[in-house]
Design goal:
Layout lengths: L1 E3 L11 H8 L14 E7 L5 E7 L1 H4 L4 E6 H5 L28 E2 L5 E7 L2 H8 L3 E6 L6 H5 L14 E4 L3 E3 L2 H7 L2 E9 L11 E7 L4 E6 L4 H12 L6 E4 L15 H13 L3 E4 L2 H7 L6 E9 L5 E11 L10 H8 L9 E8 L15 H17 L3 H8 L21 H12 L1 H13 L3 E16 L11 E7 L5 E5 L8 H13 L6 E4 L17 H28 L6 E4 L2 E4 L2 E7 H9 L12 E7 L4 E14 L6 E11 L6 H20 L31 E5 L17 H17 L14 H7 L12
Parallel strand pairs: 2-14, 12-13, 16-17, 20-21, 27-28
Antiparallel strand pairs: 1-7, 2-6, 3-5, 3-7, 4-6, 8-17, 9-17, 10-15, 11-12, 11-14, 15-16, 18-26, 19-20, 19-25, 22-23, 23-24, 26-27
Helix pairs in contact: 11-12, 11-19, 15-16, 18-19
Length: 786
């Protein structure tokens, strides 16, 4: 089948001035203006699964203003073949072979096939439409059942099937004994649906290569410049010291922009190839279709319980859809396995998993990627309570751990030191007043109104209690600090903020510890030539890891300044004080110097001994200290309209514990943002595919629905701020918790509201039509009430 492979946009918008509409109000990369800069666009596959018979690009190359057209094979000759970012998230799984641009076959709608570089974006787009690709369409693999069919067409021939990885059964505790002692077994097949990050702005990159020096300069919207630098250097076979990656204000990411994507590697290679800067900015349709998606998992769960509500053990089988090109999906089952017991006294667990490949976008990290462990556990607890006729809160309180009392670890081995799940459950239940709500619920049902109350609790390793390797995901965190000549303190961090307000929180920690006003601290991010090595932003690391490194770095810098001051004032180091940006001698306030004067004196030849003269700078690394858990309990009160299937959230309550609050406004902003995404996931958002053709059905915001202020209620938030495990660092990550816990909270509330209809919620996506199916008001696709 020979077709003219038009650019897969889903709209007629092509010109560069219109692309700003698709990416939001503007993109960081929009502001990058380099001399002679060119613009890139991609020819993308209109098919989910097809073999590429031929690619004809001669007509595109003849278009005035087109500088280069690269096919997949031509691009592979310019780079070192390899998995790119997929390699850092493989979890040790053997990955199939694939190229950055499709060469042998396309594996999802939107798969990049050809890269066009031109003088303007609209010329590049027009040239894309002249590329002729001859496709031999193949059967698509979209559903879990299709992927597990041994007779189905393999998406990667070198794998031989569409199973990426299958684990053996992992057993913790006496599983057989737990089920033998059980009064009953509660079973369920639970499903999370595919949805995605949807940052305010999509991906973007601008690259410039200097052939004389061999230096590659990259402007990139990403979560960690050092990780991007390493991957680009590897892909282009450039010495890493010759690669500089810069980043600036980024309009969100939520896990999507980690490392260097296939398109970004292609753009960097094109810039080196043509000898001019090249820029690419992802439009919204590309973002929704091909950037990456998450959360598509199913679970077969069996829970061994007593009639009193004790959860003795669990048997769990997990299947995760990793999409077409392996991303983070392969490594997630182990994370889910280890966290599944959560803050409960669950004494036995068996767990097995299967990771499958389908003709969909790559599975990427999304705000708490392991969140399914919380959704499955908290949904199962409500199903247990329902079968036993008990209050869900009572079942939780019966099984939740008490801080400082056995068991002191999950059955999977993770320490439960410092977990405050019981305290948060008790706090949120007091905020709700369960008794009063049940009375109001009964009165409403008598009037034909359906109210529901949902509750859930979670813990998140942010970074978690101390582990042998330290630092949790990404290892120890480095911070470099320097006293500048003007008396300001510069804090250099590998963290890359994209909405977390790192510049505020790190500056607060450093200012308080060092002894200068907040305005006198400058946080430097987003330049690989200046910031230390590090993973970047992700895994709720920033507050505890970079915040802790900031504290210890400020302490080390303070000591260094005090040592300089002791020589300048001929006083003991322990008598040197720093307060409000001034160095003085304790008890002799007249003997004082501004920090600018101290920095200047340190550079004056001969004024100080050699071992203390020169730059006043320190580098420290923090391994997480004693660590600790973030966590909390959420509750939601909803009303379900049984005529329309619409869900209105009447109240949403949060009792959270992330230790000491560096900045309460930022903490609550993170909680609100995560909860908003969780609400959107349940009520609105879905990355939908046609189960037969594999066509993507949600490539615009007309089809991929996002929550607005109308759907998000005012959140009532209370903070526990419990006692520290670490003597110095008792602030912990909070960025992912809201997104982790909101979906089970809301699903539990909806099932509670629909109790008169005997509805059983076993999936996470509950739009109006599904609500109506659950209560039998309309028929399901199978033609029966579900």
């Amino acid at each position: 089948m020979s077709i003219i492979a038009q650019r897969y946009t889903g709209s007629s918008i092509k010109r560069s001035e219109d692309l700003r509409i698709l990416t939001g109000s503007g993109h960081y990369i929009d502001d990058v203006r380099l001399p002679g800069m060119l613009h890139a666009a991609f020819v993308r596959s209109p098919f989910a699964h097809a073999r590429i018979s031929s690619v004809e690009v001669s007509a595109a190359r003849e278009v005035p203003g087109v500088v280069a057209v690269l096919t997949g094979a031509e691009l592979e000759a310019l780079i070192v073949p390899g998995p790119g970012a997929a390699g850092i998230f493989s979890g040790g799984i053997t990955l199939p072979s694939f190229s950055q641009l499709a060469t042998d076959k396309v594996r999802l709608v939107g798969d990049p096939v050809v890269l066009v570089v031109a003088e303007s974006r609209y010329v590049a787009e027009d040239a894309c439409e002249l590329v002729e690709v001859d496709y031999e369409e193949l059967p698509s693999v979209i559903t879990e059942q299709q992927a597990l069919d041994p007779d189905g067409p393999p998406i990667f021939e070198d794998l031989g099937s569409n199973v990426l990885n299958r684990t053996e059964i992992a057993t913790f505790g006496d599983v057989e004994g737990a089920f033998a002692r059980a009064d009953r077994v509660v079973s369920a097949h639970l499903r999370q649906h595919r949805h995605q990050n949807v940052p305010m702005e999509g991906r973007g990159i601008a690259c410039s290569y200097d052939p004389e020096s061999g230096e590659l300069t990259v402007y990139s919207a990403n979560q960690g410049v050092q990780t991007a630098r390493r991957l680009l250097a590897q892909a282009l076979d450039v010495p890493i010291e010759k690669v500089r990656v810069l980043s600036d204000d980024i309009g969100g990411s939520f896990g999507l922009k980690m490392g260097a994507s296939r398109e970004e590697i292609a753009v960097a290679a094109a810039a080196r190839h043509v000898g001019r800067p090249v820029r690419w900015i992802e439009d919204r349709t590309e973002n929704l279709t091909a950037s990456g998606q998450a959360r598509e998992e199913s679970f077969d769960v069996e829970a061994a319980v007593t009639n009193e509500g004790d959860i003795l053990g669990l048997r769990v089988k997990m299947t995760i859809d990793t999409g077409a090109y392996p991303g983070m999906g392969g490594m997630l089952p182990r994370m889910v396995q280890n966290m599944l017991p959560g803050p409960y006294r669950i004494g036995a667990l068996s767990f097995e998993s299967t990771a499958i490949i389908t003709n969909k976008a790559t599975y990427v990290a999304y705000r708490g990627p392991w969140a399914s462990e919380t959704w499955v556990r908290e949904r199962t607890i409500d199903l247990i309570a329902k079968e036993l006729g008990l209050e869900p809160l009572a079942v939780r309180l019966r099984n939740v751990v008490t801080r400082g009392e056995p068991p002191l670890a999950m059955v999977t081995g993770r320490s439960l030191a410092g977990v405050t799940a019981r305290e948060s459950l008790e706090r949120v239940s007091a905020m709700v007043d369960f008794g009063a709500f049940r009375e109001r619920q009964a009165e409403a049902r008598a009037q034909g109104r359906y109210l529901g109350l949902g509750l859930a609790t979670y813990i998140e390793a942010a970074p978690g209690p101390r582990q042998p390797q330290g630092g949790g995901i990404g290892g120890p965190e480095q911070i470099r600090m320097r006293l500048e000549d003007d008396g300001t303190v510069s804090v250099f961090t590998a963290q890359m903020p994209h909405g977390q307000s790192h510049q505020t929180t790190f500056a607060q920690v450093a200012a308080d510890e060092f002894g200068v006003p907040f305005e006198q601290v400058r946080v430097v991010v987003g330049d690989s030539s200046q910031v230390p090595q590090g993973f970047g932003t992700g895994g709720s690391r920033a507050a505890v890891m970079a915040g802790g490194a900031s504290l210890h770095g400020a302490r080390a810098l303070k000591k260094r300044v005090q040592e300089v001051g002791s020589h300048l004032f001929e006083a003991a180091v322990e008598d040197m004080l720093i307060s409000d940006g001034v160095l003085s001698v304790q008890g002799v306030p007249a003997r004082a110097m501004s920090l600018a004067e101290v920095a200047k004196a340190a550079h004056e030849p001969g004024r100080l001994p050699e071992d203390v003269s020169g730059d006043i700078e320190v580098t420290t690394a923090f391994d997480g200290g004693e660590g600790g858990w973030s966590g909390g309990s959420h509750a939601a009160i909803v009303e379900v309209d049984t005529e329309t299937g619409l869900v209105r959230i009447e109240r949403y309550l949060v009792a959270e514990d992330c230790g000491a609050l560096i900045n309460p406004a930022i903490v609550e902003g993170q909680v609100r943002g995560g909860v908003a995404q969780g609400i959107g996931a349940v009520l609105l958002e879905r990355s939908a595919y046609d189960p037969e053709s594999g066509q993507f059905l949600a490539s615009t915001f007309m089809d991929y629905l996002l929550p607005t202020a109308w759907e998000i209620p005012r959140l009532e938030i209370e903070h526990l701020e419990t006692v520290p495990l670490d003597a110095d660092v008792n602030f912990r990550g909070v960025g992912e918790g809201g997104m982790i816990i909101a979906p089970p909270t809301l699903c539990n509330a909806i099932e509670d509201a629909l109790a008169p209809f005997a509805a059983r919620v076993t999936e996470q996506h509950l739009p109006p039509n599904r609500i109506l199916e659950l209560i039998g008001a309309i028929l399901s696709d199978a033609g029966e009430p579900r």
